[in-house]
Amino acid sequence: MPSPASLPFVALLLALRTCAAAPAPAGAPAAARAPRAPGAPAPAGPVVGAAQLAKYLPLLQGKRVGLVVNQSSRVGNAYLVDTLRSRGVNVAAIFAPEHGFRGEAADGALIQDGRDARSGVLVRSLYGKTRKPTPEMLADVDVLIYDIQDVGARFYTFISTLHLVMEAAAEQGKSVIVLDRPNPNGAAVDGPVREPAFVSFVAQDPLPIAHGLTVGELAGMINGEKWLAGGRRCRLTVVPLGPGYTHATPYALPVRPSPNLPTPHAVALYPTICLFEGTNISVARGTDFPFEAIGGPTQPASRPFTFTPQPNAGSPTPPLNGQLCRGLDLRGAPAPPTGFSVQYLLDFYQQSTDKAHFFSNKFEQLSGTVALRQQIIAGKTEAEIRASWEPGLGQYKQMRQKYLLYPEK
């Protein structure tokens, strides 16, 4: 994708204080921990689980290892698969989520089985004919490693893949190791909790839109709350982030997490802007600034910004392809302070020239509730809408405390 979307993320180097992780509750994962050597300097920023090889390499000795990974699964600049194979680990298979193992597939593109051209390792698709590993796919695997960057939103499909991988592992007697990574929206816990009627691949678990967990903490919650089919639990180990990480730690991703989240600002806006994917408004897929602008043909000419989606590498068939979209340029707009807001939705619905077709059937899948569409149509204020989801969100926040591995700040 052309500049500026192709620019890499800028890593933030932060001086962090050393904080002990919270004790794991019953049902939470075993955490592989090792003390820092006396006199060793504190890390300059969050040390990801994958970089702490001494904590999990012993668990892989003599094992056939399956990797649930993508382009974010790196130790420094090296892919995790290459790092492990260079240390003699028997990598039996790679399990590719949405966008593929190398993160190059466009949005919605099905992933095919094959072999990775660089490593020669068998690649099995978890975004094609099946999204849950089958017994055949796991027959030659003893342990699964999950190492994928999340962005803290319920509808980001990589966490649904985590759930289904854990479920398959529990059913087939396999172990799962989650190599934890920071949540760039880790301080945000906000939005309606998904209702049971709206279980889907973009709403696998009863989470709010901004869930406020790392993938390691979420894995512990999935196991501890018995959300896997049949109430099973998998054999789970989490390799936590190094000392100093908190949920308030700023973190700019060193690698783009998916093709249409090219900047830290897009990542921060994603929980709020993604709901427009269930409307007739474009989120600027097919431009150089996806998830940093919103607009559509049914918005008034008074809107201050226009763009026209065109096919590109990240979105070969973007919604509203070739149509002039009137809306807002959000590249200079701050992210919502609580992590999620419905204010843009209220504004764009109120100014739509075609309110009858504003929402699509996908809206409830993304919002996780039947109420939000009705509230927007009824002209409810954001404060009134927030009040309606507070009981469920409050219960979630209380439950979340049991599974936190890191301080809030």
From TrEMBL:
Any GO molecular function: peptidoglycan beta-N-acetylmuramidase activity
Keyword Signal included in the entry's annotation: yes
Domain Peptidoglycan beta-N-acetylmuramidase NamZ N-terminal: start-end pairs: 65-264
Annotated transmembrane regions: none
Domain named Peptidoglycan beta-N-acetylmuramidase NamZ C-terminal: residues: 269-406
InterPro entries to which the protein is assigned, alphabetical: NamZ, NamZ_C, NamZ_N
Annotated signal peptide: 1-20
Keywords, ordered alphabetically: Signal
Family annotation (Pfam families): NamZ_C, NamZ_N
Protein name: DUF1343 domain-containing protein
Naturally occurring in which organism (per UniProt): Hymenobacter nivis
Organism lineage string: Bacteria, Pseudomonadati, Bacteroidota, Cytophagia, Cytophagales
